[in-house]
Amino acid sequence: QKEVEQDPGPLSVPEGAIVSLNCTYSNSAFQYFMWYRQYSRKGPELLMYTYSSGNKEDGRFTAQVDKSSKYISLFIRDSQPSDSATYLCAMSALVGDTGRRALTFGSGTRLQVQP
Amino acid sequence: DTGVSQNPRHKITKRGQNVTFRCDPISEHNRLYWYRQTLGQGPEFLTYFQNEAQLEKSRLLSDRFSAERPKGSFSTLEIQRTEQGDSAMYLCASSPTRGSGELFFGEGSRLTVL
Question: Which DSSP letter does residue B42 get?
């Protein structure tokens, strides 16, 4: 079983819809939770990161973390065709003695917003 | 532009050839990472530098792979005797020393081994 599970989709929604993207995880050591957006043949772009359980809002995007259930979500309101991309969840935990926070990615959910 | 820069963006090579990718991180970031991403998967960690020191290497990094970061600035990733299984997107990322571990990625270097 992977440490981070994410439904690969594809998820197809009409323009203006509310989109819900989710990940589950198994490692209790994860402390920070992030969402990246990746357009085709491009590098991942950081959208949001959160530390504690609860919600964090940034414009049309809301990230939600429930540490007790090991479940995180990203909501996109008023979705636009330009939101069509792959969304990757990522989680970090301290590893070893190098001070590095290892980032573990989900496999990504492909989102298509239809005009 | 102050983002992470990678080149070449796409490299097509024949099996058995050597390839080298270059990464220029965000200038004030002293941590640099290489990841590999295959189709339909999230990025997988390959190696990590703090300044010029290579502090970690994943077991994914076979001895045909070598990474360097001379003088703690740009980094190179070399793959010797390429195999078809090496075909992937090679992503470079950088981060500041302190933080939540969020990484800032470059556009990636896509390798196709024929």
Answer: -
Distance (Å) from the alpha carbon of B103 to chain A's nearest alpha carbon? 8
In chain B, how many H helices and how many E strands?
A: 0, 11
DSSP annotation of B44: E
Peptide bond into B43 cis (omega under 30): no
Quick: pLDDT tens for B17-38.
999 999 999 988 889 999 999 9
Q: Report how far residue B83's alpha carbon sits from residue B13's, in angstroms, rounded to the nearest whole number.
A: 10
Cross-chain Cβ contact A106/B103 below 8 Å: no
Q: Cβ separation of B100 and A32 shorter than 8 Å?
A: yes
The 10s digit of each residue's pLDDT in A58-104 is 999 999 999 999 999 999 999 999 999 999 999 988 877 767 778 89
Q: Which of A8, A7, A12 is nearest to A112 (CA)?
A: A12
